[in-house]
Fold:
Amino acid sequence: MRAALVVHPASGLGRAGRIADAVATRLRGAVDDLAVIRVGSVEESRSLMARARDSGLDLVVVVGGDGSVHQGVQFCAEHDVALAVVPAGTGNDLARTLGAPTDPLAAADALVADLAADRRTRIDLGRVEGGGPAASRWFAGVLCAGFDSAVNERANRMRWPSGPRRYDLAILAELARLRAGRLSLVEDGGRTEVEATQVAVGNIPHYGGGIPICPTADPTDGLFDITLVGRASRLDLVRMLPGLRSGRHVDNPVVTTSRAREVRLGEANGWVAYADGERIGPLPVQVSCVPGALTIVGRVVSG
Structure:
């Protein structure tokens, strides 16, 4: 087996870079050949993985967070290469769905055991079209638009403060200017026009570091779970927050849930779509669930 260990050293405030050598040491006994690839940008990641592919590659192991994994998903889905994840970022939502231990070295040990037992699973991926020039791409987790994406947009523009406080301030700022948007939602051909605050299209349950926004989503069932927050006031959102970590937000009267294989989020209403925490671009976007599009080492334990 030929494997590439792709390390994004800055992930998790430098955690990925600090543990990369220890992860590599563990993996070398489980594969025949291991190339360690340290990348500092999306473009570099794609280029180096393409070169590794040309030498014959069976497995990509990503050490990093969901943004790093998102880049690995693009490569592995396009080239039918298996993917494994050693969580070392801040969110680690796909790793959570795959049951990886939260400690990255424990996760590396679990990966070695999975490789020895040849445990592999085919999971679904989302395919998104639209959103701007970087249009067609894969995602493994959750695509969202509306309030939470507006928070991301604002936080990404801010230069101060750093860390989680930046997002706290962005949330407060977006709450102050909260307003619903007109959203055209097409699910498997059925069209709905709604006033909405946000929408999430989930291939897996979690986003944002463990928030089960689509609590029953299963990446092996060939369908998305859709969570739609209708017209909501600031008070509605504040009341919803305590239930987010437990998934009880879906019981709120302003929230509706559904399931579909094809979803179109229509209208250029000013909303921006994010998937796996990465910016896709402004609506409209078309999203398709592609069953069994990716091989992962291990098994799905939540969904």
Summary: The longest strand covers residues 190-202. Residues 2-118 form a domain with the Rossmann fold fold (CATH 3.40.50.10330). Helices lie at 15-28, 42-54, 66-79, 93-97, 104-117, 147-157, 164-176, 234-244. The chain has a mean pLDDT of 88.
